[in-house]
Amino acid sequence: MNFMKEEFIKKMSFSDEVKKRFIRLSRGQRKVAQLVIENPHVVATHIASEVGKIIGVSESTVIRFCYAMDLSGYSELQERIRKDLSETEKVATKEPIYAGKKHEYLFSEVMNGDVASILNTIQYVDADSFQKATLYLHKANDIYVLGFRQCAPTASYLTSILENLGKKVTQIKFNVEDILKQMNKMDKDSLLFVIAYDSVLEDVLTIAKIAKNKNVKLIAITNSTISPLRDYAEINFVVGAQKQFAFEGNTAANSITHALIEGMMILNRNDYRKCLKCDTLLHYDFNLLEKQSAATK
Fold first, then answer.
1. Are residues 231 and 132 in the same domain?
2. What is the pTM of this model?
3. In what residue span(s) does the HTH rpiR-type domain sit (predicted)?
């Protein structure tokens, strides 16, 4: 492991640790985890029994959550959360990097933020899920890509590369008519690839539910380990870092998408390379025709 990655992991917040273990927790413990992630001040200022009443679980469930997180008990949980909150307040008092019109090191701070986002994403990638996703992409007869608003750039990036590799792929447009049209075409041999961050989840959950009822395979990229899209997706990749705007997760989303494409190509590299070569030649022929046409005018 390189030095940069080691340093980043050392700085992982307790909230990040909870997200990483979220899927292993029981249903009741997940309620405690969600409160820790979304409203840490409540846990930091209330005793275990009160926290249990707030979220509708027993005090013993709250304590079992602590043990599941390798803590000695509720007091240590509060200590970890208070430490996180203290660090957050320190960060909040710093001057934002975009505050001034001129910033000598703006490019390095932004790009280091992108690196941190990608490193954080790596932690949540399960190797078996990654391999399964590449196989789905390789075998799918029809691939549908869904990504609205700030997720659209990654959706377009994925669609473009898959098309260049000879895959039959459709990017679903953000209008009711196209959504219904594409949903009607999907079947058990189709693959729906969804890129959806928290702010657009309401737009895609219904689509994901319909796809699941039609036995469509579903791969998702979200920016939260507790995204409700997890209930419908067979494979879910979590991207980005804490305290990022949703669109800032696109760098990490593009990176995991690139990795998936590379994994898919390994399964039949010769054929995929032939498709890329044909695509390049086709563009060359079109450019040549345009130049000849322009010369005759």
1. yes
2. 0.62
3. 12-88
Phi, psi dihedral angles at 144 (to 5 degrees): -115, 130
Which range of residues forms the domain containing residue 245?
120-266
Quick one: which of 270, 4, 240 has its CA closest to 120? 240
User: Are 72 and 136 members of one domain?
Assistant: no
Q: Which two tokens stand for residue 266?
A: 């390994």
32, 65 contact by CB (below 8 A): yes
pLDDT band at 17 (very low <50, low <70, confident <90, very high): confident
DSSP labels, 158-190: HHHHHHHTT--EEEPPSSHHHHHHHHHH--TTE
CATH for 183: 3.40.50.10490
Under DSSP, the state recorded for 242 is: T
Residue 92, number of CB atoms within 10 A of its CB: 9
What's the token pair of residue 79? 């200590």
pLDDT digits (tens, 9 = 90+) for 101-153: 455 567 677 777 778 778 878 877 888 999 999 999 999 989 999 988 888 88
Domain total in the chain: 2
Domain end residue (candidates: 35, 59, 94): 94
Tokens of 260: 């998936």
Q: Residue 269 is inside which H or E element, if any?
A: helix 269-296
- Contact present, 48 and 40 (Cβ < 8 Å): no
